[in-house]
């Protein structure tokens, strides 16, 4: 595992990119960075890798490309385990209790990634953005962005965000250091802190983060930030910047993980009307609904794996099962 390069495709304004950067830092995984544009087109991904999935970030480990930050978290934990000297994203409870990995995954995916992110994304100052950016985000959302209507409802969103902060305050009231009372920082801490820190950059949300109302929450936000900063100073995971061309060559020439690590659930395949080796479409069902077409190599209840081809070579692309549709399709001329 130590000889397998990890490459993160990102852009700085993306909180999801920051989340994955911080996961890599917390775990102490050396990695490389490829900067991509904040909006389409992204030929670094669509052309060189042949990946039409439009969300950022994506992470390549060797020849395997992973989409979806929830799947990326699980894969980093599996492929870079504590037994090999890496820090855990799913640590046990303080005092030697069990590991609540499933709870952490659910909170990360549906509380932070859906409920909280939706409130924050709708609080962006869309009236200040240019038409090209708005059009790109409308395509991503699958609907019109009405900046005036969103601004008129900001008070309701701000109140809802305050309610989320109140839940954090309640969770931390017993003096615990981390949200799930773990013996060290965990995925939910990393994920939630990124989005609350992002929110504090918004002028229309700053007043919500009151030290009088949420003292424990603000202390926790600072505690996570300090932990991330210390991880950066340790140099254990100092990132190296790559050009898109060099990254694509590196990934194309690398080996892939045996598909047996994912396996093939015949029952699930039958439910989806697909078979091993079929050409399939894998597409998000919530936003950024751009399908990726590839040959189905593996499928279980957590992820699907398809083979794709870009200008730089052939790659194996992994997608989460939750909130992604896998459907049979016909091969394209490119493949």
Automatic annotation (TrEMBL):
What Pfam families does the entry give? DUF7962 (PF25907), GST_N_3 (PF13417)
Coiled-coil portions: none
Q: Where is the GST N-terminal domain?
A: 4-84
Bilayer-spanning residue ranges:
none
What protein am I looking at? GST N-terminal domain-containing protein
**SUPFAM superfamilies in the record, alphabetically?**
GST C-terminal domain-like, Thioredoxin-like
Taxonomically, the superkingdom here is Eukaryota
Native source species:
Phanerochaete carnosa (strain HHB-10118-sp)
């Amino acid at each position: 595992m130590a000889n397998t390069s990890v490459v993160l495709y990102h852009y700085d304004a993306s909180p999801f990119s920051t989340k994955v950067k911080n996961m890599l830092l917390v775990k102490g995984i050396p990695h490389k960075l490829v900067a991509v544009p904040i909006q389409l087109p992204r030929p670094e991904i669509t052309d060189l890798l042949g990946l039409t999935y439009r969300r950022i970030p994506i992470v390549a480990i060797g020849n395997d490309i992973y989409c979806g930050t929830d799947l990326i978290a699980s894969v980093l934990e599996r492929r870079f385990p504590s037994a090999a000297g890496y820090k855990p994203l799913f640590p046990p409870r303080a005092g030697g209790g069990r590991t609540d990995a499933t709870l952490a995954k659910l909170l990360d995916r549906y509380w932070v990634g859906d409920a909280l992110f939706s409130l924050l994304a709708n609080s962006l100052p869309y009236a200040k953005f240019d038409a090209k950016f708005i059009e790109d985000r409308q395509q991503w959302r699958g609907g019109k962005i009405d900046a005036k209507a969103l601004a008129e409802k900001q008070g309701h969103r701000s109140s809802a965000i305050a309610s989320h902060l109140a839940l954090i305050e309640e969770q931390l009231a017993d003096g615990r250091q981390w949200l799930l009372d773990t013996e060290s920082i965990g995925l939910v801490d990393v994920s939630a802190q990124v989005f609350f820190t992002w929110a504090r950059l918004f002028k229309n949300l700053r007043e919500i983060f009151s030290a009088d109302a949420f003292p424990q929450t603000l202390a926790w936000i600072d505690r996570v930030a300090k932990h991330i900063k210390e991880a950066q100073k340790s140099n254990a995971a100092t990132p190296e910047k790559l050009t898109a061309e060099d990254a694509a060559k590196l990934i194309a020439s690398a080996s892939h993980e045996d598909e047996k690590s994912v396996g093939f659930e015949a029952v699930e395949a039958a439910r989806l009307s697909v078979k091993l080796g079929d050409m399939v479409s894998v597409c998000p069902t919530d936003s950024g609904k751009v399908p990726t077409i590839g040959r189905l190599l593996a499928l279980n209840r957590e992820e699907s794996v398809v083979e794709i081809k870009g200008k730089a070579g052939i790659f194996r692309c992994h997608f989460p099962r939750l909130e992604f549709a896998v459907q049979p399709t016909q091969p394209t001329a490119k493949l």
